[in-house]
Structure formats: structure tokens, C-alpha cells
């Protein structure tokens, strides 16, 4: 299928790179493709970025049948545009689509679409340290119908946003609240899918944690309320006695690509990574015994985010004196340098545009 292109005739003024925050500015173009039952995906196109006109009864507004992804493009010093592990995002989106009864998208066409829209807006890729072009593919159910069933029509869109560091403070240890009232996901649910409903359901916990002075929540499992799951929209790692623990992928947590990248790098540095269930009580015990050396969260947006404080049942524990740990810093530096082309890509993670 050929991707048609309609260029904007009123390009926007690009934002100043030094003042970029996360997710506020969007580029001049977007990718759109439609789906109709019986016809499949059709009419892939790049059009000027702009608002959509949708019937108020459009299904996605009512029952949330949608999925999304997040990845980044970087411009290397020699001008090459680099995508980081895009095929993993594409595969994961089709896994989410399967869970939400959304038809699969051809993976080669999807990659071609990402490359094409990034290429057209390549002047929007910022180059200052810590910046990148965030790519947000998403699919929405578009039948104008308010009954609960899978839609028979869908739209895939890919929008682009030049971004600075996720946290205004940069790579600063965060204060995390261990959530003991609300849960994010349960076995058999949609925890492993990137779908809007999971995030809508998490807002209440986030708002209450903010009120208490924390920047994010650490989710515990939804049944026993003791196993460590993830931190906000990122995966959680704990370094204990030289070994690194993270929750296994058993359906309730999102299988982060930065999680997988971190595991691969840690193993390549000879550090043992243990993907087995562990509890908040284990973490507290490790802390008391002086074995908890570092904790950090991983995700595309912030890459690595060290955890400085964990609040649990009215008690705040301090991790690594609230300083950035060695492993956190090394992972952050290595991943961002592979992404921006300063470090050799020995794992074959980069796809050039
Ligand atoms: C996106 C996401 C992550 C991180 O995934 P990456 O592929 O590393 O960006 C982790 N947890 C949740 C809930 C997420 O939505």
C-alpha cells in the first residue's frame, strides 16, 4: 500500500529547544489510516496535523476501546535519524490490539508509516542533550454507535511531539508512594496492554499521592496487595546485595521495552537480574538489613528514573541517600548514548530512518 502525502501550507513556528517540556507541542504532520470490517486497513496517509471531527456517539468516547504506544526518534551528530527498537513497539501494539479486540496492523506497513511521518517532520527532531522526538501511535474505535461491542471501524494515527527531559529536575531521585488502597491491574485483566482505561483507572491514586507530596505511586499486585508490580507508567527495579530484582511479566504489568533494554545491558555487564515475584515486605527487610543499594524505574519517556524515597504505611525510607545510584546512572548514560548514536549499537536496537 502506498502512503499518500498532503503537506501543510502553514508550517508552525518550532518551539525553543531549551524550553521543551513533555508532550505539549506537536509537529506539522500526522499519519492516519482507516479500518473497515471486510476491507481491512486502508488509505494510509500523511496529512497536516489538526483536530478531528467525530460523531459524539463514536464508540471510543464511551467504552474506551483504544490502544497506544510510545517511542522516540533521535538525530545523531552526523544527521542520521535513529529509532529505538520500533519493531518491539509495533509488536506490543498488536498484542494490546488483540486484548482490546482491535484488528492487527501489518508490521512492515506500520514501520514504514513511522519512518515516513518522522522523515517529513525531521526538522522537528531536537538535538540538545536530553531531547528527542516522541512518537505516539494510537488506535481508536470509530463506529458511531453506543452499544457495547467491538467497533467495526477504526483509525490508526501517529502524532509526533518534540520533548525535553521527562522530569523538569532531570535525572533526580523521585519520591514514590507505595499504593495500598487502589490497584492498577489484576491477572486476566488488561494490565499488559497499553490501553487508555488502565491510565484513567490510575489517576485517583496519582492525585492522592501528589497531595501527600510524592511524585508517583508504586503499584502492588491486585490480589494479595504485597507483590511489587510497577511505578506509575514505568517498570521498577531494586538492586539488592549486587543483584537486581524486577517483577516478572505475568500479565498484570506492562512489558516495557526500556525494562528489557535494562535487563539486557545489566546481564552484559555481568550483573545478575532476578525476574521473580518479590514483596514490599522484602524491600523493607532489605532496607533494614542495609542491602537495598539502589532502586529505579524504567520507561521510554524518562528512560531511567532513580527512586530516592519510598513511602509505605506512613514511613518514608531513603534509598542510596537520595542520590543517583551507579547502575541507574550507567544505564541512563548507555541507553541515551545508544539512542543518540554516540555509543555503538551492539544489540541491534537502532533502526535508521
Ligand atoms: C509504557 C509503560 C511502561 C514502560 O514501557 P516502555 O516500553 O519502557 O516505555 C511501563 N509501564 C506502563 C504501565 C506503561 O504504560
TrEMBL record:
GO molecular function: L-isoleucine-2-oxoglutarate transaminase activity; L-leucine-2-oxoglutarate transaminase activity; L-valine-2-oxoglutarate transaminase activity
Pathway: Amino-acid biosynthesis; L-isoleucine biosynthesis; L-isoleucine from 2-oxobutanoate: step 4/4; Amino-acid biosynthesis; L-leucine biosynthesis; L-leucine from 3-methyl-2-oxobutanoate: step 4/4; Amino-acid biosynthesis; L-valine biosynthesis; L-valine from pyruvate: step 4/4
EC number(s) recorded for this UniProt protein: 2.6.1.42
Modified residues (N6-(pyridoxal phosphate)lysine): 194
Signal peptide limits: none
InterPro entries membership: Aminotrans_IV, Aminotrans_IV_CS, Aminotransferase-like, B_amino_transII, BCAT-like_C, BCAT-like_N, BCAT_family
Cofactor: pyridoxal 5'-phosphate
Enzyme category, top tier: transferase
GO biological process: isoleucine biosynthetic process; L-leucine biosynthetic process; L-valine biosynthetic process
Presence of the UniProt keyword Amino-acid biosynthesis in the record: yes
Catalysed transformations (reactions): L-isoleucine + 2-oxoglutarate = (S)-3-methyl-2-oxopentanoate + L-glutamate; L-leucine + 2-oxoglutarate = 4-methyl-2-oxopentanoate + L-glutamate; L-valine + 2-oxoglutarate = 3-methyl-2-oxobutanoate + L-glutamate
Keywords, ordered alphabetically: Amino-acid biosynthesis, Aminotransferase, Branched-chain amino acid biosynthesis, Pyridoxal phosphate, Transferase
Organism superkingdom: Bacteria
Family: Belongs to the class-IV pyridoxal-phosphate-dependent aminotransferase family.
Protein name per its UniProtKB record: Branched-chain-amino-acid aminotransferase
Lineage, uppermost ranks: Bacteria, Bacillati, Bacillota, Clostridia, Eubacteriales
Amino acid at each position: 500500500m502506498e502512503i499518500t502525502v498532503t503537506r501543510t501550507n502553514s508550517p508552525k513556528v518550532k518551539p525553543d529547544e531549551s524550553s521543551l517540556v513533555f508532550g505539549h507541542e506537536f509537529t506539522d504532520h500526522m499519519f492516519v489510516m482507516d479500518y473497515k470490517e471486510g476491507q481491512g486497513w486502508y488509505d494510509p496517509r500523511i496529512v497536516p496535523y489538526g483536530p478531528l471531527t467525530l460523531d459524539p456517539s463514536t464508540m471510543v468516547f464511551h467504552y474506551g476501546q483504544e490502544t497506544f504506544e510510545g517511542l522516540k526518534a533521535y538525530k545523531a551528530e552526523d544527521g542520521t535519524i535513529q529509532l529505538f527498537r520500533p519493531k518491539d513497539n509495533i509488536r506490543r501494539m498488536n498484542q494490546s490490539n488483540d486484548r482490546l479486540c482491535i484488528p492487527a496492523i501489518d508490521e512492515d506497513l506500520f514501520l514504514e508509516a513511522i519512518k515516513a511521518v518522522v522523515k517529513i517532520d525531521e526538522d522537528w527532531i531536537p538535538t540538545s542533550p536530553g531531547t528527542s522526538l516522541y512518537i505516539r501511535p494510537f488506535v481508536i474505535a470509530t463506529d458511531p454507535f453506543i452499544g457495547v461491542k467491538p467497533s467495526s471501524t477504526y483509525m490508526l494515527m501517529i502524532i509526533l511531539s518534540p520533548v525535553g527531559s521527562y522530569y523538569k529536575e532531570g535525572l533526580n531521585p523521585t519520591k514514590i508512594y507505595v499504593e495500598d488502597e487502589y490497584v492498577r491491574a489484576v491477572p486476566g485483566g488488561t494490565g499488559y496492554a497499553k490501553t487508555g482505561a488502565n491510565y484513567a483507572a490510575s489517576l485517583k491514586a496519582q492525585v492522592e499521592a501528589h497531595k501527600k507530596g510524592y511524585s508517583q505511586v508504586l503499584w502492588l499486585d491486585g490480589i494479595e496487595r504485597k507483590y511489587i508490580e510497577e511505578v506509575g507508567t514505568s517498570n521498577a527495579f531494586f538492586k539488592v546485595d549486587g543483584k537486581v530484582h524486577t517483577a516478572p511479566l505475568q500479565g498484570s504489568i506492562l512489558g516495557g521495552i526500556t525494562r528489557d533494554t535494562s535487563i539486557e545491558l545489566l546481564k552484559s555487564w555481568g550483573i545478575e537480574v532476578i525476574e521473580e515475584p518479590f514483596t514490599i515486605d522484602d524491600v523493607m527487610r532489605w532496607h533494614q538489613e542495609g542491602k537495598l543499594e539502589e532502586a529505579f524505574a524504567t520507561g521510554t519517556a524518562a528512560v531511567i528514573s532513580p527512586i530516592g524515597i519510598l513511602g509505605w504505611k506512613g514511613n518514608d525510607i531513603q534509598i542510596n541517600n537520595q542520590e543517583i545510584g551507579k547502575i541507574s546512572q550507567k544505564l541512563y548514560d548507555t541507553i541515551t548514548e545508544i539512542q543518540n548514536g554516540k555509543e555503538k549499537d551492539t544489540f541491534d536496537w537502532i533502526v535508521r530512518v
